[in-house]
Amino acid sequence: MDLGFGSQNHTIGNAAAQALLEGAKAQEETVEAELARFDRLLDDEEGLEEIRRQRIAQLQKKHSQQKKWRDLGHGSYQELGGSHDARDVARDFFQASKESDRMIVHFYRPSTRYCDVFHAHLEKLAPKHMETKFVKINVEDCDHQGGGASYLVEKLGIVIMPTLLLVKNRKAIHHIQGFDEVGGTEDFSATMLAYVLGHHGIIDPSDDEDASEEVFKMKGVNSIRLNKGARRGYHYGDEEFD
């Protein structure tokens, strides 16, 4: 077959074949080096024991971290101030932000149907991402009650429902307002939301959440919204509450 290079076809073909051969050889050498390393380990009982001790230490550290997260309410999607007086919502919010390094806060109204979309996806993502605390705050009567939720809505600039506030190291790093960042439609998946949350560093997305077909389709349409950057952080620790 003529590739359009005339007499150079043969030369190009040889170069391509040589490149493939060199690539295969390098891969083979890498595999052989790994096998040789494992052979040395099998002959080194002290080395194997050290690897075993390191692995046990890693597992113990991971277990301890997971327990700490569970004790703080990570792994579930919870209501802040749901069973308390409205004035306690702000107190719960600031306390949670002090205890957890990363937190996603869904400001919602029960009467707003679009909020149910975020409810469903956050409920699904919370158990998968123990590293982050997932909470929600009902702001239905903020305009009338003037309670704790009203204070948060005003202080944090919550103007659109639904809004996801992303909190990292006690700072509000970004607002996800409505569905603009997830394709501009309510028909997005939990995987799509996880990708956006991972982009902002509020969760650690898994491989399937980081490169789904839905994500690739979205890029080029709304990616400009993703790359706007976070809002200026507000340090919650500067506020005192009675």
UniProtKB/TrEMBL annotation:
InterPro entries: PedC-like, Thioredoxin-like_sf. The keyword Coiled coil applies. Residues 14-41 form a coiled coil. Keywords: Coiled coil. This is Thioredoxin domain-containing protein. The lineage of its organism: Eukaryota, Sar, Stramenopiles, Ochrophyta, Bacillariophyta.
